[in-house]
Amino acid sequence: MSAASVFHALRKLTPGPRWGVIGIPYLWMLVFFAIPFLIVLKISFARLAIAMPPYTPILEIDGAEVALTLNLSNFLQLGALQNGYIAAYWSSIEIAAIATLLTLLVGYPMAYVIARLPTSSRNTAMMLVVLPSWTSFLIRVYAWIGILKSSGPVGRLLERIGVIDALQSLGWIEGRQILYTPLATYIGIVYCYLPFMVLPLYTNLVKHDGHLLEAAYDLGARPWKAFLRITLPLSRAGIIAGCMLVMIPAVGEFVIPELLGGPDTLMIGRVLWNEFFANRDWPLASAVAIAMLLLLMIPIVIFNRVQQRQIEGRLT
Predict the structure, then answer these.
(1) What is the number of alpha carbons within 13 Å of residue 89 lying toward its C-beta?
(2) Do 261 and 250 contact (CB within 8 A), yes or no?
(3) Which SUPFAM superfamilies did the record assign (predicted)?
(4) How far apart are CA 300 and CA 294, in angstroms?
């Protein structure tokens, strides 16, 4: 066999750069998602034990005998109404949905204005939107404690202009400050996740053909009607993507409700933290995490189906 034929055979066996590019994302998913998910899934079927780690093994090998013990009581415990897990899940979904809607109401006008700016100014405007994300997430949340507390300059200003009295009369706050209320949680989520809403909306809006609006104006359409009939439907994909990027992590948020929301803000992320680190019940905490992950898969599946229908509609 000649050297050329050997080299040709080895080249066929060696994965090319194309397979390397394709394989890197799958390797990333395997290492940082699939393997941790399987570990958490394994712990969720174990029993609590006074040991380190604090759970019993589900697979025991004794010579030629292999024993697999799956404990379903952790998942059954989640469904018990008296334990409060269902209430925590529902409260997390409710808070995340309201915060996502508020983020959309704030982020859509921002993305729309940035998309209508001159080309030379768009990058600067987007840089200002993304710039706060370059700092630590924890530091940004801590900064809002000083902003929202009653003794701070913003709190005193809101007190003087009557905003605190108005919020209290509406029932949005109980005391004389916004801090440690559900309203503070909404403010924190909107602020921290706003770039994740603006980026997909801007990417969608900047691609719109301006001639469509000009044609609508020439035909006598008012600006608000042209927006509702043309711009808003065309930006549906950006709206869905932005809402997904905000709502999915907001459901499992822990830092914002812990630092800004106070004890009355019940979210599943705080329950998960307490089970892991306060109660040291790793099996139950893992079951909570698995249930939350399965719950978050629902909007992802819906989003994929909507995208698939849009692609099929373009092809037909």
Answers:
(1) 18
(2) no
(3) MetI-like
(4) 10
The domains of the chain, with CATH numbers, are 15-73 (no CATH), 84-280 (1.10.3720.10)
Dig out the tokens for 174 from the structure.
């109980």
Neighbours of 250 (CB within 10 A): 28
Q: What own/partner pairs with CB < 8 Å and gap ≥ 24 does 86-90 have?
A: 87/266, 88/266, 88/267, 88/268, 88/270, 88/271, 89/268, 89/291, 89/292, 89/295
- Cα of 6 vs its chain's centroid, Å: 51
pTM: 0.84
pLDDT in tens, 178-214: 888 889 999 999 999 999 999 999 999 998 888 888 8
In tens, the pLDDT along 151-177 reads 878 888 888 888 888 888 887 787 778
Does residue 285 contact residue 269 with C-beta atoms inside 8 Å? no
255 touches 141 (CB < 8 A) = yes
Q: Which amino acid is at 142?
A: Y
